[in-house]
Design goal:
The complex is a heterodimer of chains A (about 80) and B (about 400). With about 80 residues, chain A is mostly helical. Chain A contains four helices and no strands. In chain A, helix 1 crosses helix 3 (about 40-55) and helix 1 (about 5-15) crosses helix 4 (about 70-85). Chain A is globular and about 35 Å long. The two termini of chain A are about 15 Å apart. Chain B is built from ten helices and 20 strands. In chain B, a hairpin with a 2-residue loop joins strand 10 and strand 11. The chains are: A mainly alpha (about 80), B alpha+beta (about 400).
């Protein structure tokens, strides 16, 4: 799975969390919680969905790395790469 | 044979549009199953059945708008099947029939929808030339979809809601913001306005606040969640909800309904969870028997509720009979909120965001995580002293999260 695939998964799952938001316009460096107005319950639902889709375990301590789209893509790519090798 | 009727999902609801049947004649259903989806001004609501048995007959066609109380289907109950007889439709119990529309009895679950209006012929939904269901029409209006561009898949080529949805997903993402289907924010605003104006007109509120050290909750959550996969993790909001429900069971002056100049304490704790809708809106669907619910189940139910609310899918039993409401502002909120009680309830508990504060423990100052918990309560029913004890009890319960 390359980074583009990861981003597609992230976009899809964010779309489920915030169905009324236009994700095309989302700044990939913006704090998702601010940009999409999501709370801790939404964020947990997002983490659960990504965990199910990609099989990556995401400890709570790592949450800060996933608060932007860019950050989440980088984090998941490195996790997926590490698990393969 | 019992009749399954269009339920009343709030005092202001007069009619609903049946947009989806999830069962057909011959299907077995059990109490609590979602059997149909109804559109109201509050959005699409999944309707649950209160009887266990077999669907004998569907009485209302798709996309028909019918008044509250109209029989939607006939169900042959388990009991009748065993007895081998088809009983005449049972008369509604008098006490339920007399209840004002939308105000469900405080009993855990009513055996029947509150309103028992006599059956009225269904209103044909087809108007004029192109046959378009009201649900489809409204969805199309919301999204600015030209109905001429939609292909109908319903009876005789009628355009139904699913057709508009297909058209919407097929269309490239438009520049304007999308709305979750089934949520009508204008109607929701009207409903909020009516309930809140009534509350401030009728309920003499008093307010109390209490600062609680929740450092032990945070530490316990961190320890617990470190060992769990994401799907099993807990949030502060679940601890907050559980502590309120457990305290409300003991403090009966805050858990119940006020109507006809009289307070009726409820025998169960059905917790209304206030959920903010992005774009401006608020709903407080109920979770049943939260005081008895294990924390893990409560957390799963709360996550599910938030997710379905966002998608505009709420169940009928969640819409009407909360006995007390809790509102949490979450981590991006402010320190405290002073709530407006949702009538006919008599109390609302508010949780501000958790903040780090200097705190004195055993004579020394240290950093602790503090949350301000507020109570808005009905002075016709309780006084400040009882309210203070209620808030203190919630604070005490939060000191031992492992016991919640």
């Amino acid at each position: 799975m390359n980074e583009a695939d990861i981003r597609t998964v992230l976009q899809e799952e964010l779309g489920n969390i915030a169905p009324e938001m236009d994700l095309q316009k989302l700044d990939p460096a913006a704090d998702l919680r601010e940009a999409l107005d999501i709370d801790s319950m939404d964020f947990l639902n997002f983490i659960i969905a990504v965990h199910h889709r990609l099989g990556v375990d995401i400890p709570e301590l790592d949450y800060p790395e996933l608060v932007t789209l860019d950050g989440a893509a980088t984090y998941l790519k490195s996790k997926l790469g590490a698990s393969k090798s | 044979m019992v009749e399954f009727r269009m339920p009343s999902l709030g005092a202001d609801m007069e009619a609903g549009t049946l947009v989806e049947w999830l069962v057909k004649p011959g299907d077995q259903v059990k109490r609590g199953d979602v059997v149909a989806v109804v559109e109201t001004q509050k959005g699409a609501i999944e309707i649950e059945v209160f009887e266990t048995g077999r669907i004998e007959q569907i009485l209302v066609d798709l996309n028909s708008k019918v008044p509250v109380g109209t029989p939607l289907a006939r169900i042959r109950t388990e009991l009748e099947r065993k007895a081998g007889v088809a009983l005449a439709p049972a008369a509604p119990p008098a006490s339920v029939a007399e209840a004002p529309p939308g105000v469900l009895p405080a009993a855990p679950r009513p055996s029947r929808p509150a309103s028992m209006a006599p059956p009225i012929a269904t209103l044909p939904s087809v108007a004029g030339r192109a046959r378009v269901s009201p649900a489809a029409r409204r969805l199309a209006e919301t999204h600015g979809v030209d109905l001429a561009t939609v292909t109908g898949s319903g009876p005789s080529g009628a355009i139904v809601r699913a057709d508009v949805e297909r058209r919407l997903t097929a269309a490239p993402a438009s520049a304007e913001k999308k709305r979750p289907t089934g949520l009508n924010l204008d109607a929701m605003r009207t409903a909020i306005a009516a309930a809140m104006a009534r509350s401030k007109r009728e309920i003499p509120h008093y307010y109390l606040e209490h600062q609680v050290d929740v450092t032990s909750c945070e530490q316990w959550l961190t320890r617990t969640n470190a060992l769990r996969p994401p799907g099993g993790r807990l949030l502060m909001a679940a601890l907050a909800a559980k502590s309120v429900a457990v305290a409300a069971r003991r403090f009966t002056l805050f858990n119940g309904f006020y109507h006809d100049d009289k307070y009726e304490p409820a025998s169960a704790v059905h917790l209304g969870i206030a959920i903010a809708i992005r774009g401006g809106g608020l709903a407080a669907p109920a979770l049943h028997d939260v005081d008895q619910m294990p924390l893990d189940e409560l957390m799963t139910r709360m996550r599910d509720l938030v997710q379905r609310m966002r998608a505009g899918r709420i169940r009928s039993s969640e819409m009407s009979n909360s006995t007390i409401t809790v509102s949490s502002l979450g981590e991006r909120g402010v320190d405290a909120l002073h709530g407006v009680i949702y009538p006919p309830q008599v109390a609302l508990i508010g949780f501000g965001k958790v903040v780090a504060r200097p705190w004195v423990i055993d004579g020394a100052i240290g950093p602790r995580s503090i949350v301000t918990i507020t109570l808005a309560a009905d002075h016709r029913v309780s006084d400040g002293h009882a309210g203070a004890l209620f808030l203190a009890e919630i604070g005490k319960l939060l000191q031992e999260p492992e016991k919640l």
